[in-house]
Amino acid sequence: MWTLIKSLRAGAISAAFRTLIGAAGLFAGLAATPGHAQPVEYVRICSLYGAAFFYIPGTDTCVNARQIVDNQFAIARANTRAATGTAMAASLVNPFLPNGTNFAVSMHWAGFDGQHAVGVSGLMRIAGNLSFSLGLAAGLDRGKLNTFTERTQTEQGTSTPAESWSQVRVLGRAGLNYAW
Fold it and tell me: Domain segments of the chain: what residues?
């Protein structure tokens, strides 16, 4: 038993000694490196197209920071337009025209992805099984976007570009319906 304890203690001391030697070698290697590294170029300026253009890191693609902000606003605006259009289409529900009646009107509200719309539809029997339908929807396309791509430092703090919009959009439809 005593020899087992001695061998374990000797192995542990040997492992600790090897670790200490390895750490000393690593420290010596780090101390031998020069005190200054190569300068890092964080933003390469692109002079091909004028002021405010820079290279995307790791590529030879030259872009303008304002162009990136404009694209972010355009995408956000297109998303709200699509949501408003979806809400307007959903609000145009064709009314039911029972037998023995000649006119029907329906009004519906719909919402999609934060955008809302109201639609009014009408149906008129022309003759027998032929009817004419008409619908009109209005929706408020509204939204706001803040971007942190192009920040400006001012005396009052950091200024970030923001854009908001609000526009009434209209959708209409007309059609004939024949049933047999």
Answer: 53-178
138: left (phi over 0), alpha (psi -120 to 50) or beta: beta
Provide φ and ψ at 84, rounded to 5°. -65, -40
Q: Which of 148, 144, 172, 173 is nearest to 160 (CA)?
A: 148
d(CA 72, CA 147): 8
**pLDDT tens digit sequence for 117-164:** 999 999 999 998 899 999 999 999 998 888 776 677 777 777 777 888
How many other C-beta atoms lie within 10 A of the C-beta of residue 66? 13
Tokens of residue 92, six digits: 């145009």
Contacts of residue 170, defined as CB under 8 A and 6 or more positions apart, other chains included, come to: 88, 136, 137, 138, 139
44 Cβ contact list (under 8 Å, min separation 6): 54, 55, 57
Q: Which CATH architecture has domain 53-178?
A: 2-Layer Sandwich (3.30)
pTM of this prediction?
0.62
